[in-house]
């Protein structure tokens, strides 16, 4: 079973173990008991197979972001970051993240709509992928202070593959230059 979980879709199971990587998962919720939902989700992340450690940031509150931009009238989000040490293949991990969301009542009716739980795979080690099923790193992570701020508190030396140091990205974002 472990070999299958460590192999991506379309990959044949390897006889050598996949090396552990640090996966960065952004957690967010703006409906229901947000704090409890994030706590429960972290507990579920820690129970994932082939996952040996989970480090989390303290949650922060942020304004909801919609397709039209920030929406102060929408319920505020509680956001956090979890750093997982895992041997799960990135696409397998994504499947587990979606299953956790579903168990917490996540409904995908409106893009960027309100939600009980949102789990985004931000980065997986130094993997860069433009696969439509799983783009890594997350294409908008460098634009989101609600991702960068908690990530930086969980790992002051963090780097977003292909973009640079999280501290520098946050500084540029705050200065109004998100390139």
Write the H/E string, N to C.
HEHEEEEEHEEEHEEH
Beta content comes to: 25-35%
Q: Uncertain regions: pLDDT < 50 for 5+ in a row?
A: none
Terminus-to-terminus distance: 42 Å
Short description:
The chain is an alpha+beta fold and 179 residues long. It has helices at 2-6, 34-46, 90-103, 145-154, 166-174, and strands at 21-29, 51-56, 60-62, 64-66, 69-71, 77-86, 118-124, 129-131, 134-136, 159-160, 164-165.
List the helices and strands and how they pair.
Elements: H1 2-6, E1 21-29, H2 34-46, E2 51-56, E3 60-62, E4 64-66, E5 69-71, E6 77-86, H3 90-103, E7 118-124, E8 129-131, E9 134-136, H4 145-154, E10 159-160, E11 164-165, H5 166-174
Antiparallel strand pairs: 1-6, 1-7, 2-6, 3-6, 4-5, 8-9, 10-11
Helix pairs in contact: 4-5
Your description of this structure?
This protein has 179 residues and is an alpha+beta fold. It is 28% helix and 28% strand. Helix 4 (145-154) runs antiparallel to helix 5. The N and C termini lie far apart (42 Å). The model has no long low-confidence stretch (mean pLDDT 90).
Search tags:
11 strands, 5 helices, five-stranded antiparallel beta sheet, 179 residues, alpha+beta
